[in-house]
Amino acid sequence: MDALNLIEVSYAYPDGIRAIEKIDLRVRTGERVALVGPNGAGKSTLLKIMAALLFPTDGSVEIMGEQLTKKNAERLRRHIGFLFQDPDDQIFMPTVWDDVAFGPINMQLDADEVEARVRDAMRMAGIEGYEQRVPHHLSFGEKKRVAIAGVLAMKAPILLLDEPTANLDPQGRSDLIRILRSLPGTILLATHDLSVAFELTDRAIVLKKTKLYDGDLRPLLEDQSILNKASLDLPPLCKLMVEWRKKSGKKFAIPLTVDEALDVLDPDGG
To answer: 221-231 pLDDT, tens per residue?
Structure first.
């Protein structure tokens, strides 16, 4: 069974502006996929449609094999954990514990199960000891962790993450990448930062209102036409290795990681 299947999905805002056009997209269970593209490309809109928070103007959406309708949307949303770009859009309870517990309580789980889920989610998100903290007094990075813990406590099989590393300092970004790497299940993340896609996924969908590319990350790095159309910039490491390839005359695939780059520069490990 596919986790998500979108067929000819389009969406227009109430003022008539088209956000996305005729998107076909199939995501297998357990797959990790990056939606990449510039601001205004429709990434957030597409994620909200996948999360049954918006309904497409045209086309159809299947979640865990069932076609989305307004009648079954509330039930199908239980398959989805959604992380908003701004954690202030997601956290609203008086304490961190209350915020993380909100979802499991509304699932009508018993008290022991709620407590177990909250403690496990807080541990995974690295916020043990924050139970009685006031969420809106936390730093931006800490708020992101609280929001992630709230998503994890739901134990949804599909996670949709909107710009998960946006506005984080380097340490916060590194910590969040580590957390996200450890998560099970199907993950789709929206980002304009290709380096985030490299670290967390192995399939990229390039979006600019319509789908420009869908496939492995490595071929995308070599497709300057698509990168230009989507206003995507290669990470500094990739840029460096592209220039080294030109200068050295050597033939090699553009490395995605520092270790891969070292293997290219020093293949004998000397």
So the answer is: 999 999 999 98
Structural domain of residue 259, as residue ranges? Answer: 234-270
- Based on the domain organization, do 250 and 123 belong to the same domain? no
Q: 176 exposed, middle or buried (CB, 10 Å; 0-12, 13-18, 19+)?
A: buried
Instruction: For residue 179, give both structure tokens.
Output: 């957390």
**Cα–Cα distance for residue pair 143/164, rounded to 1 Å:** 12
Residue ranges of alpha helices (H) inside 72-153 are 73-76, 96-106, 111-125, 140-153
- Give the tokens for residue 66: 């069932």
Alpha carbon distance 9, 59 (integer Å): 4
- DSSP summary character for residue 263: H
Structural domain count of the chain:
2
pLDDT 10s digits, 85-140: 899 999 999 999 999 999 999 999 999 999 999 999 999 888 999 999 999 899 99
Specify the pTM. Answer: 0.90
